[in-house]
């Protein structure tokens, strides 16, 4: 077999963006705004599993609607998305993908059916074949994800999120109930989906009802961070920026009025607010630099938590994970709440990898069993 190489150029990159949130978080409306920005005036497709609720936005956005009803099998989702892709839509919104996991006929139902087939009513046998009963459902889900990765259109996947809790032993030795800590959740809100799916996407975000439309990153790579500013609502401009990045287009040049020089305007830089504008110059010389008053933003602890989760989730080798954990732990010196969060993230990631059954993936935590001093 002969391999051919050529200089890498970013062009026509397919986007897979995930938006997860509970009731009132604005995930459907946000998905519509994002899709409109990406589609640039063209109609996009919406695959609706929520009994036609997407039609509530028919007067606000230009889209074609299709209902997907039970059974919500991975094959049904893949066929619906493939049909929309073949129809030539530039963007496909799926609201929601949670049904393929926890809906009628979804992966959880498929596993239960397989367990009944393999173990019947013999409870000892059922326990013995419990892990094996996941093979076919997970393979079907994996095949669906692989088909999604081949779609030419840009995909926006909506996920429901549920509030989860867990019991842990506190410093006083007593059990206490706290929001569940996971790599994909925040303050106990966890997307309803296969645990690795948000990390298969180009970018994925959690939306909260207290801040509708404001993204809390689950996965957000460095090259995309400026496209989705912290504390800023995802809107049509966000879609236009990520679409421009995906196309490989370069920002249009501009002329500096002061010098007449041609400069390159960053595509992802938002226009400054009036408060941030420099005051008008009333005399000769250069006006003194001024600072815009700081705008009220989200709790900085939220940004730290999402950054910690992203750092730990991207560890793949034993040394890398140990280094990242120790670095984060050292950075949190004096912040016991953040240190507890980092330790909980480490333990959650370890448990997630152990459940996956991948022996190689367990190894990164061999050197991280104890907290660094």
Beta-strand percentage range: 15-25%
The count of domains is 2
Point out poorly predicted stretches. 262-296, 356-373
For the termini, the CA-CA separation is 52 Å
Major sheet summary line: 8 strands, mixed
Shape category: globular
The CATH architecture of the largest domain is 3-Layer(aba) Sandwich
Helix content: 25-40%
Q: Which structural class fits the helix and strand makeup?
A: alpha/beta
- CATH topology-level fold name of the largest domain: Rossmann fold
The ordered string of helix (H) and strand (E) elements is: EHEEHEHHHHEEEEHEEHEEHHHH
Strands, total number: 12
Number of helices: 12
Look at the structure and give the mean pLDDT: 81
The first-level CATH class of the largest domain is given as Alpha Beta
Structural Rg: 24 Å
